[in-house]
Amino acid sequence: MPLLLGSLRGKFVFWMAAVFIIALLLAFAAFRGVSDSIIAALGDRFAEKQALYDKSRIRSPVLKEIVLARKMADSAVLQAWAENENDLQLKAAALKELDSYREYFSDGSVSFIVDKSGHYYFNNKRNDFSGQELRYTLKSDAPEDRWYFQIRHQQFPYTLHVAPDTHLNVTKIWVDVPVKTAGGKLLGLVRAGIPLKSFINDFIRNSEEGISNILIDGDGAIQAHPDSSLIDMSSTINPHTARFTIFNLLNLEDDRAELLAALDALRMVPTQVQTLYLTIQGERKLVGIAYMPDLQWFNITVMDIDTLLGAQTFTPMFVVLTVALLISLLAVALILQYFVLRRIAVLDSAARKVAAGNYELSLPSRENDELGRLAFGFNRMAGTIRDNTAKLEQRVAERTAELQLANQQLAQKNKQILDSIRYAKLIQTAILPRSDLLARYLKDHLAMWLPRDVVGGDFYFLHPAQDGSCFLGLVDCTGHGIPGAFMTMTAHAVLRQVISESDGLALPLVVSAIDDRLRQTLQHTGEGDALNYGMDIAICRLSAGLLEYSGCGIDLCLVENGVSSVIKATHRGLGYRLNPRKVKPIEVHKIQLREALRFYLASDGLLDQDGGEDGFGFGRERFLNQIALWADVPLNQQQALLVELLEQYRGLRSQRDDITVFGFSVNNQSLDEGI
């Protein structure tokens, strides 16, 4: 869509299509309204004629069965036999009489019931029961025979109903005609029937698509339906509440009331036909209703009006209208294309060339109209741009030369700064203890120094004292990068000076001296100082068989025989502005040296480094657990493992602060000899 609307031609095509669609929708709405009114009128007339036709078509075969059965019931031979069933001569004559009628019934079968004995005589079209016409005996206590005993005393010339005969295993539309004497005494019953399945196929399922029939009795009970499962079997003997009626198929209460009124009207005037629109089983249908008073049945012709008289009937008219509309729009489009869009396309092409830097062009401007004047103005504009571009290119060349010179100067200065920072790193690295010095006093050691930037604010140290002891530890100065590096140089100088003057001093006095000397060096004279710099420190003094530890902000972690522990540092720093209310006393912890004992010092850059799935800090507990697991791994090998572990935990997150870890173990023998 954006590509289509990106040009005037595309917009024109889009809106022409939109106009066509809107006009087509309006035409369709008008067409549908007119066609619906025509269909409604034609549908009513068609429904009336179809209902009358179906009434005649269905009534005739049923009425034939009734007339024939009534004639058979008037037979003197059958009446005489019914009064004296055991008379063999009368029986033979009666069975011959039954056989003579049998071939005239629609299915070629006939039944006769003797009331006195309840004997049910039957023979079919194939004459399968010749000599064995007595099929069974009706019993008043048998549910399948209840129909006879319920209707035998009714005053009726005949009964018409649908029911299964479980004895004969058939289901028919039964015509039951009583056999009576002249005095009205009931002798028996003549029974004829039309097989339900063939009746539905021949008369209910209409051969024309979209038309079907439903037969109901006076109470609305369904006697015939294309779906045989919906037929109310034995409806004449069922209680009214148990009957399945046409009203059960209607979804709307208004439809039920309208149908009931139509049935009452037809009883009054049987020659008429009622047409209605009913929602039957969820579908809106046009129905024609006709009454057959001699059967006391109603025929309901159900029609799908969309199938019979759908809008497709009028489709050719709509197609012609659509084609005419399309031709009109195409004619307008061609005219507009020739006189407007073609010339605008030339202007667009010229504008694109100008945008690409081609100013050497001229458009024809002969036509004296808006587009001709626009072409003339475009030519003047292109000439002006051509002149201005030449001037601008000259100025750009001059400015480019000036910028190149400035960039060269900036690159030179940047190189000088980077060289200075690299040199500063060399200087800072030089303050760290040499490996030979560490090896002299320590059995094994780990030294991980990872500044966040090129230089940093952390360092570890080892300084021999004049009294033969040895000071070692870790310092975390305020800041990182270049400011932190300057602080490390200052702190290292103060640390060396104090240790060199520490002969015989207790460790707390050494720490206090470092605090005072650093504060003086930083010129922290009071709380009003603008800047407040200092450091955290963990300082240890090694002497024969003993390690003394004093921590200010940096804990001492220990591992022995796979078990880790920690000695908490004092919560204070050194060198910061003096606030007596916040100064905590310096504590000293003394530890007897043992072969299996290892010591670890770590700056907060390690413990606070975020990582993992949740972005939490690495943490002291994780560090203690890990160094406990590495109890059997030499310290010089742990360094690489710790770097790898930290990288995995950090992932893609950036390093937050300088990270320094200093671990060591002491050989008692060599220490005794050296000190």
Topology:
Blueprint: H1 8-73, H2 76-83, H3 88-102, E1 110-114, E2 119-123, E3 134-137, H4 146-151, E4 159-165, E5 170-180, E6 186-195, H5 196-204, E7 211-217, E8 222-224, H6 253-268, E9 273-280, E10 283-292, E11 297-303, H7 305-309, H8 315-355, H9 370-430, H10 435-441, E12 444-450, E13 458-464, E14 470-477, H11 481-500, H12 507-522, E15 535-543, E16 546-552, E17 556-560, E18 563-567, E19 589-592, E20 597-602, H13 604-607, E21 610-611, E22 616-617, H14 620-629, H15 635-650, E23 659-665, H16 668-674
Antiparallel strand pairs: 1-2, 1-6, 2-3, 4-5, 5-6, 7-8, 7-11, 9-10, 10-11, 12-23, 13-14, 14-15, 15-16, 16-19, 17-18, 17-20, 20-23, 21-22
According to CATH, the homologous superfamily of the largest domain is PAS domain
Q: Unreliable stretches, pLDDT < 50, 5 or more residues?
A: 670-675
Distance between the termini: 87 Å
The tally of strands reads: 23
Structural class: alpha+beta
* Distinct helical segment count: 16
Main β-sheet: number of strands, strand sense, barrel status?
A: 6 strands, antiparallel
CATH top level label of the largest domain: Alpha Beta
CATH topology of the largest domain: Beta-Lactamase
Task: Name the beta content range.
Answer: 15-25%
In CATH, the architecture of the largest domain is: 2-Layer Sandwich
Radius of gyration: 58 Å
> Would you tell me the overall average pLDDT?
84
| Total domain count | 2
Outline: elongated
What percentage of residues falls in helices of 4 or more residues?
40-55%
- Write out the strand line-up for the largest beta sheet, numbering strands in chain order: 3-2-1-6-5-4
